[in-house]
Write a structure and sequence with these properties.
heterodimer, A: mainly beta, eight-stranded antiparallel sheet, 3 helices, 44% strand, B: alpha/beta, eight-stranded parallel barrel, three-stranded mixed sheet, 15 strands
């Protein structure tokens, strides 16, 4: 957006177009026109889901503070009520055999002070409507955005249950009922996994993900058999949410907005590449797409008339674009330490060639290819050369392990400058999240935060990047963390010192193990910060086969 | 003036003189910020003390708030962009689950209070009417924010208009605030003001401490950048704390206040516009650089009726002396052109509230509160600002002592003493 001189000086890059850029899919035809489906039904009609036989569509209708579920023939016609009454019924989803609809609902018949007992909980009802709804979950939680597993035995859903912070995790429950099982829940403020949809092969699910109120929703892939194995499918620099797999598993439709768009729109993501295509649906916001069983049509909601109504349209010819890839000469480290073995003595040799040897203070414990830090042990680099970044970009990379969480501030490293003792830092905060911070020109703290506390007893790679634009980002094991900072354009003069394992003045010791440590006068590329490719991630999942 | 008209003007002069006399006997105000959300979780052995979904609960809150001698109730209208009354143009507090883009608030009971649905009592309308019955001036505490630092507070209007969202210098959208530079956003804000005026509020207090994480760093939207280019013939600095950029961004906030004032005037309603500025003294550019709040320009232009000192950065070595000196600096800038409220702040997130003062002086809360109240009164402040009156955070003894003072010795505003 802006001309940033220092950025130009720091980077020489080429924009390469991926071969996937011009990939197309779908029938070659003139742009299809969305056909209104619920325009004659008063109220907002949203959150549609297609039946497996393709004949009907179930949706949520909002009218005068009431929210009910309706079913309508996919080719248009008279809608029939499915779930009505004083409760609010939302987010319907059909079972693979077409017999059941799962949804979330709440009945506010008491105030909380009067003893409200249940919140938004899951219920099952026959798709035919010829049965009373059956409660599946209970309690003062928000259980929402359910979907069936591909074999129909389980229901995946998002829930606030068990949360101590304002967070949402992924859960599943047997269609027979019982206790919900937590699949993945990072209980930190504003960290949420919402709107799961299981891939046709059943191995991977996609969902919307956000971490922090400064973040954007993005799409995340999660392995159903190993939920902690996840992959960020879309960038966090623009919002994407509400993923739905195409029946052949090659594509994911979702709702998104990218700078330059004039509305929320439907996007289709190629699962194997992450390449995006926006679907032209005409004026107004378009949201919440769902596929027809043959994969040739989408149903979605659009507000061109001033109120959200459902529309159906043929899938148009798609033009995928990948994010431009930045390629440049990678920066050279100005500090590089390996903690693989005891160097002997109190000097830690700098492997960068800049002569920034570290002074070891206290007795480090060298074991298992790393150095164990604790109270009283740290490494100091007095007057390090090459750390006068000015307003340019820089990166700090470290490989570390944490063995226990505490409620204490712990400094992994700090860059101490004459203008600010805490110029930049990687630290574990009292919330046990990892933070990487830089500062504004007036010294205000500006930081990126890890999506969750680091896993205990596991070696992880942490990369913090300050861009010339003032953006601050963090990668953990190659995954860009959602909460970034902006405005960190402090101009760094020559540094007073770098400390590793403690605060600049000696307090707040890091308790854990360090394996590698590097500082770069430049920006590590996304590729360098990221470890796993999407292809690697999916190779175990047979997605799109 | 023609002689015959001069005769006609005589009564007006007399009325003016009587107004001046009335001004001299102006009531010293106690402006209590009331975040009823903070009463929802109060329990005793019988259960929740305040039912924040029902008028009985709201009445109990007002009873408690009156114990401190309150004259002006600044009732919180929202959390972020979620309104706590039946707004027709914005989200209602219990809406988040209905829009899966929000991260719902999980806490019991706070995440489940609904502050009235359509079929029930409109809380804000009820509170305004109840204040009237009790002889209290009704106002609204409206934070200059759309997020309140939490995803669940982001409003439906905001979510529906991503093309108005803030932008970082590198163009990344942020849903935390829709930019006031877009006419549609301004119109939406004024529609919210309409909803407050419709309910009969007399004072609108815009709190710039609660800015929901917004700063000029998120204002690199096309209209603002284009206007900057046109004005300065250059690209704005990507350093979002650049004073020139911040002044430019601040001009949109100033225009916002201008529009609110004109809007209320056009409706023929007498609305007292109050602004709260954190860290206002020692005087510096900080409010402008971090919040786009050019408050001195607002006073110069006559845009605001009251400046509320959220806190000043007093010296722990001389808490009361430095507080007096720093707050005087604000009075000297204002020069009587609008009201000034001094803080008797129960909250201590800044490190400059009463708890820190108690720590620095060794005095009890009632003693500190009395010293602060008296100081404000002695220096000619129009009143004091209480952030916030929660359940018992102004202790019973404090409430008793403050009420006795403002209903007795400190009942009327003092003339501003001459400065030496």
């Amino acid at each position: 957006m802006l001309h940033v001189k220092s950025c130009v000086l720091a980077l020489t890059y080429l924009v390469l177009l991926s071969p996937a850029l011009l990939a197309t899919c779908g029938p070659a035809a003139a742009s299809p026109v969305p056909k209104p489906l619920t325009d004659k039904l008063p109220g907002a009609t949203i959150e549609a889901a297609w039946s497996p036989d393709g004949k009907t569509i179930v949706f949520q209708r909002e009218l005068k503070e009431d929210v009910d579920l309706y079913v309508i023939p996919a080719e248009g016609g008279e809608p029939r009520p499915l779930v009505t009454g004083p409760d609010l019924a939302i987010h319907p989803a059909g079972s693979p055999d077409g017999k059941w609809i799962v949804y979330s609902s709440v009945l506010f018949d008491k105030t909380v002070a009067q003893g409200l007992e249940n919140g938004y909980n899951l219920h099952l009802v026959r798709a035919s409507g010829r049965s009373m709804p059956r409660r599946l979950t209970a309690g003062l939680h928000r259980d929402y955005t359910p979907c069936f597993s591909r074999d129909g035995a389980f229901i995946y859903f998002s829930s606030t249950r068990g949360a101590k912070q304002n967070s949402v995790g992924l859960y599943r429950i047997s269609v027979e009922g019982g206790e919900p099982e937590c699949i993945l829940h990072r209980d930190a403020t504003d960290v949420a996994l919402v709107g799961p949809d299981v891939a046709p092969n059943g191995h991977v699910l996609a969902c919307g993900f956000i971490a922090g109120f400064r973040g954007n929703w993005s799409l995340r892939l999660v392995k159903t058999s190993a939920p902690h194995d996840e992959y960020p499918l879309t960038e966090t620099s623009y919002p994407m949410y509400g993923p739905r797999w195409s029946p052949d598993g090659r594509l994911i439709a979702c709702t998104g907005y990218r700078p330059g768009d004039n509305s929320w729109g439907l996007y289709v993501v190629e699962a194997r590449t992450g390449a995006l295509a926006r679907v032209d649906t005409g004026p107004g916001n378009s949201r919440s797409p769902a596929w027809s069983p043959d994969g040739k049509r989408l149903v979605f909601e659009n507000n061109r008339t001033g109120e959200y109504k459902l529309y159906v349209m043929d899938l148009p010819r798609l033009r995928f674009t990948e994010e431009p890839k930045l390629v440049w000469a990678p920066p050279q480290p100005v500090v590089k330490f390996s903690f693989a073995s005891d160097p002997g003595g109190d000097t830690l040799p700098d492997l960068s060639g800049r002569g920034n040897d570290g002074k070891i203070v206290g007795k480090l414990l060298w074991q298992d290819g790393g150095a164990v830090f604790g109270d009283g042990q740290y490494v100091q680099i007095p007057k390090p050369k090459g750390c006068d970044f000015g307003t340019g970009g820089f990166s700090v990379r470290t490989v570390l392990r944490v063995d226990r969480h505490t409620d204490q501030l712990r400094l992994v490293t700090v860059g101490d400058y004459p203008i600010h003792h805490l110029g930049w830092q990687i630290h574990l905060s009292t919330d046990n999240h990892l933070w990487f911070n830089s500062r504004t020109p007036t010294g205000e703290y500006t930081a990126a935060r890890s999506d969750s506390p680091p896993p205990l007893g596991k070696k992880i790679t942490v990369v913090g990047i300050r861009y010339p634009s003032g953006k601050v980002e963090m990668f953990v094991d190659g995954v860009r963390q959602s909460q970034s900072g902006a405005g960190a354009t402090m101009s760094y003069p020559a540094a007073t010192q770098i400390r590793i394992g403690t605060q600049y003045s000696g307090g707040s010791p890091f308790v854990g193990t360090l394996y590698e440590y590097e500082v770069y006068s430049g920006i590590l590329s996304t590729a360098e910060a990221r470890r796993t490719s999407l292809q690697d991630f999916l190779s175990e999942g047979d997605v799109g086969e | 003036m023609k002689p015959c008209l001069a005769f006609l003007a005589l009564p007006a002069v007399l009325v003016g003189l009587s107004c001046a006399a009335a001004q001299a006997a102006e009531r010293f105000e106690v402006a209590s910020w009331v975040d009823h959300h903070d009463f929802a979780g109060v329990r005793d052995d019988k259960g929740y003390v305040f039912d924040c979904d029902r008028p009985e609960g709201w009445a109990k809150i007002l009873d408690h708030v009156q114990e401190v001698g309150t004259t002006l109730v600044l009732w919180r209208n929202c959390g972020g962009a979620n309104m706590r009354y039946q707004s027709l143009v914005e989200s209602h507090h219990h809406d988040p689950i209905l829009d899966k883009r929000r991260v719902p608030e999980t806490r019991v009971p706070w995440g489940w209070v609904r502050y009235g649905d359509a079929a029930e009592e409109d809380m804000l309308r009820w509170v305004v009417q109840e204040c009237g019955k009790r002889g209290l001036r009704p106002g609204v505490h409206w934070p200059f924010e759309e997020t309140h630092w939490e995803g669940w507070t982001i409003g439906g209007w905001n979510l529906e208009h991503p093309y108005f969202w803030g932008r970082t210098p590198d163009g990344q959208p942020w849903w935390g605030r829709a930019s006031l530079s877009f006419p549609e956003v301004m119109a939406h804000k004024l529609a919210l003001v309409d909803e407050l005026l419709d309910r009969g509020i007399e004072a609108l207090f815009i709190d710039f401490y609660r800015n929901g994480g917004w700063t000029p760093a998120y204002e690199y939207v096309e209209p603002v950048v284009a206007a900057y280019r046109a004005k300065y013939g250059a690209e704005p600095s990507s350093d979002s704390s650049d004073p020139c950029w911040c002044r430019h961004v601040g001009s949109y906030v100033t225009e916002f206040l201008r529009r609110i004032r004109k809007h209320a005037q056009a409706r023929g309603q007498n609305l007292e516009l109050m602004v709260g500025i954190p860290g206002i003294a020692p005087l510096s550019d900080e409010p402008l650089l971090t919040r786009g709040a050019d408050w001195q320009a607002w006073v110069d232009e006559g845009l605001v009726d009251a400046v509320v000192i959220n806190y000043v950065k007093w010296d722990p070595q001389d808490p009361f002396g430095s507080m007096r000196k720093l707050s005087r600096e604000v009075m000297d800038v204002v020069k009587g052109r609008c009201k000034v409220f001094w803080p008797v702040q129960a909250y201590d997130f800044s490190g400059f509230g009463m708890p820190s003062c108690q720590k620095a002086t060794g005095l009890s809360q009632p003693e500190v509160a009395e010293r602060l109240l008296r100081m404000a009164w002695e220096e000619g402040a129009h009143g004091i600002s209480l952030e916030c009156v929660d359940y018992n955070n102004y202790a019973a003894a404090t409430r008793e002592r403050m009420r006795a003072l403002v209903e007795g010795e400190c009942e009327w505003v003092q003339p501003v003493p001459p400065r030496g």
